[in-house]
Design a protein that fits this description.
By secondary structure, the chain is α+β, with helices and mostly antiparallel strands. Helices cover 41% and strands 22% of the residues.
Length: 78
């Protein structure tokens, strides 16, 4: 999750973590469901949280850590 301070595409996350597609998909979905990570959309060079996304095509989206996610990450490292 520390790699998600800034929005990253699914492909970049997969490349940087060396995780398999299904493994990364499951982990990201769990993080999204626990509101540690949010799905973002890039329009006009601005990113915004998406209200709806297609979890079957998760590779088409980008992700970023939420404030809650970053706080939990900081607590875990202390």
């Amino acid at each position: 999750m520390e790699r998600l301070i800034f929005p990253e595409s699914f492909d970049v996350i997969m490349e940087e973590t060396n995780m398999q597609f299904g493994e990364l998909r499951d982990d990201l979905m769990n993080l999204v469901n626990h509101r540690f990570v949010e799905v973002v959309n890039f329009d006009n060079d601005k990113d915004s949280k998406m209200a709806f996304y297609d979890s079957d095509n998760i590779k088409d989206f980008s992700f970023r850590a939420t404030k809650t996610g970053l706080k939990s990450l900081n607590k875990a490292t202390i």
